[in-house]
Amino acid sequence: KLGLDEVSRQIGAKSSRINWDITPLERNIFKLRYVKNKDINRQIKRCVWSGMNLVPMRLGFNEFFDMMATEIKRLQSRRSNFKIAPAMKFLNNTMHRIDAAHTARAMAFRSFSNRIKNPETRLSHINYIEFKQWQVNAEIINYIRGCTGPVVLRAGMGSRKSSAALRQLMRESERGLLTAHRQTLTHDLYRTMADEKDYDLLGQDKDMLHYQDQGITEIAPYAKKLVCCVNSIIKGIFRPLVTDHEFFGMDEATQTLRSVLTGNAMAYPVDVYNMMKTSIAATTGTVLLCDADANDHLITLLERANEKREELGLPAWPQINVIDLPVN
Asked: I want to staple 305 with a disulfide (CB 3.0 to 4.6 A). Which of 109, 271, 280, 317 is the partner?
């Protein structure tokens, strides 16, 4: 028994493990120097697979390509019958193919699936359109105005989602609600609404409120426009506007929905989600959800809100509109 216990201890002991002093990439590059010519492409592929796991965290793409190109050139100097051109072409194609696969996998939850993009699998109530320009311009804003049903806008950072689309549509509405998941973002949105001289929150449009304004308890029931953190829409003082408005806007909508669903940053996530869904459903005009990472989850949210409209006595939306701009 003592012998078996000792054998078991030694098998599980860390001191019995072999510690490699080189990385898998270094080990595969070392093997590349000595394989037969007929096995070079196979070993190059192994090097690329192990090396691309380090890109871009520890190695840049071009840096890794130069490293592998140096090794292949070294093979040419050592072997008389080795042709470098096919090996370099194989290296280039393999690296770009694996990089494209890694990128697609990373972007899978930051974009729309084939359920939305592919016309053959797209549901009839989804209207999907791509624009070539990456910034929001007058053409896109006019398209949003003409949409029947809610709109999901996927556009990258700096594309003027907030300063052009959300701002313009919020200004045009008689009663509007603008939400986000972070306090700092709501402050930025509030300032964005007033970044021109002809639209002064303290002057011409006194109905625009921020949910943390002084005296908000007294004036909130009479507000016509509100910029609010999403976890505060359940407050009773905002109920008149949250349930009766012409425009509903949400910046960083995917992150906002994720913060509500995880419930880590708020006290009553279920109540917030239900009120958010009700607020979207109660919109009599335009619903605009914006995010660089907009995905299918926002479509599902709007589908749930559309089911809620019948309970509120409103006609169902005939379609959900998805606008996709190029995102790096």
From this structure: 280
C-beta separation of 242 from 255 below 8 A: no
Whether 264 shows a pLDDT value over 80: the answer reads: no
- Closest by CA to 39, choosing from 74, 63, 75, is 75
54 to each of 44, 64, 108, 174, how far by Cα in Å? 16, 9, 20, 53
Sign of the alpha-carbon dihedral angle for 116, 117, 119, 125: positive
First and final C-alpha spacing in the chain: 63
Q: What is the pLDDT of residue 195?
A: 53
Distance separating alpha carbons of residues 292 and 158, to the nearest angstrom? 10
Omega before residue 318 within 30° of 0, cis? no
Query: What is the model's pLDDT at position 206?
Result: 54
Q: How confident is the model at residue 20 (pLDDT cuts 50, 70, 90)?
A: low
Q: How far apart are CA 185 and CA 154, in angstroms?
A: 18
Alpha helices of 33-113 — where are they, by DSSP H? 40-52, 61-78, 84-107
Task: Let me know the angle formed at the C-alpha of 243 by 237 and 247, rounded to the nearest 5 degrees.
Answer: 110
CA distance 277 to 151: 15
Classify residue 315 by its DSSP letter. P
Identify the three-state secondary structure at position 151.
strand
Residues 57-106 pLDDT 10s: 888 999 999 999 999 998 888 887 888 899 999 999 999 999 888 877 77
